[in-house]
Specification:
By secondary structure, the protein is of the alpha+beta class. Among the domains are: about 110 residues, no CATH class; about 90 residues. The protein is about 30% helix and about 20% strand. It is built from eight helices and eight strands, in the order ααααααααββββββββ. A four-stranded antiparallel sheet has the order 1-2-3-4, with no helix packed on it. Strands 5-6-7-8 form a four-stranded antiparallel sheet, covered by helices on one side. A hairpin with a 2-residue loop joins strand 1 and strand 2. Helix 5 packs across helix 6. The longest helix is centred in the middle third of the chain and has 26 residues. The protein is extended. The protein starts with a helix and ends in an 11-residue tail after the last strand.
Length: about 350
């Protein structure tokens, strides 16, 4: 019986180092060089590369570092990966993430999911052989940034545009009108008429420019600019940024939980459906501020009406907090945290 793929990738990590799972190009090259041929189909290799290229693996490892439930996080990030790759079936994406998570040392082997019989990606039975210099296809769709606010994984450059297109005609160069059928030369234009049109065009341009200059120098515009610079409307309602949102249901009642921020302040907001519209019924501030360096904010349903929310800071520190949603009572109950907030230490 051959060695399981997740064990082969764990051996790859031991030989090359954990950084091999940070870059999709380097991973694909190392996969071709170190992993036994036939260990994965073309579609499965594409799933593994896509999980790295889209940032799904990094988001999963960040959540696990904050103490999130592995099974829940793998399922959530697997669904996002499948959506990024343009498919609604996520079994293969979840499997690929669990394999990479174990190979990178984030989860034990008993949490690796069973390989699906048919991978999400259509593929040939065997992966092609080749060296690490082969062109890498990270998947049908590729986003350098995350379903979220964090820094993107290694981004590929834009594809080279196809050369050989004829240059666009010069908009200032007059083009000759095509002669009408049956006429040798078409209609001739009076040069005096062309000159008159050109003069009128110049006059119109000058008039518009003078109007703009007059508007910019007017006292009303100066006052408006001063009000804007003073931040007159910066504190208007509705200025909060939505970081993440989930829905929770119990006994036929559905509520929405949002993680929002206003500058460095962040809040957990509960919305319930009243008369056909979702309205805010409760909110609670997060235990730590949302710093300028924060990214990858997330809310996760932990089951049993319990929630997890948090984000990363500076790539090494993270904030995470648990709480409960009383759906019937329309109430949020945070449990609080014991560790200091990122940046306080």
């Amino acid at each position: 019986m051959g060695v399981a793929l997740h064990d082969e990738l764990a051996d790859l990590r031991a030989q090359v180092g954990p950084q091999i799972f940070d870059d999709p190009v380097a991973f694909r090259a190392a996969f071709d060089d170190f992993v036994s041929e036939g260990s994965a189909s073309t579609g499965e290799v594409s799933l593994l590369v896509g999980a790295i290229a889209t940032g799904a693996l990094q988001r999963l490892k960040d959540q696990l570092a904050l103490g999130a439930d592995p099974a829940t996080s793998i399922a959530a990030q697997g669904d996002l990966l499948a959506r990024d790759r343009g498919t609604s079936e996520s079994d293969g994406a979840r499997w690929a993430l669990s394999v990479l998570a174990h190979a990178s040392g984030a989860i034990p082997a008993d949490l690796v999911l069973t390989r699906p019989a048919v991978p999400d990606s259509l593929s040939t039975p065997d992966r092609p052989t080749g060296s690490g210099s082969d062109v890498v296809d990270p998947g049908p769709t590729h986003r350098p940034t995350v379903d979220r606010a964090g820094p993107s994984p290694t981004a590929f450059g834009d594809a080279t545009r196809v050369a050989g297109k004829e240059p666009s005609p010069d908009p200032h160069r007059p083009t000759a009108a095509a002669p009408e059928p049956g006429r040798p030369g078409g209609r001739r234009t009076n040069p005096l008429l062309l000159g008159a049109v050109a003069v009128l065009a110049v006059v119109a341009i000058v008039a518009v420019a003078l109007l703009f200059l007059r508007d910019d120098d007017s006292p009303d515009n100066t006052a408006d600019d001063q009000a804007t610079s003073d931040g007159g409307d910066s504190g208007a309602p509705g200025s909060e940024d939505l970081l993440d949102e989930i829905e929770m249901s119990e006994a036929g009642k559905t509520v929405r939980v949002q993680l929002v921020r206003d500058d460095t302040e962040a809040f957990l907001v509960l919305l319930a459906e009243h008369e056909g519209d979702y309205t805010e019924v409760d909110r609670t501030p997060t235990s730590c501020p949302f710093l300028d360096t924060a990214y990858d904010a997330v809310i996760q349903d932990q089951g049993g009406r319990q929630l997890f929310w948090g984000w990363q800071n500076n790539g090494t520190e993270g904030y995470g907090e648990y709480g409960e949603v009383q759906i019937d009572e329309e109430m949020l109950i945070p449990f609080g945290i014991d560790a200091p907030c990122p940046g306080d230490g």
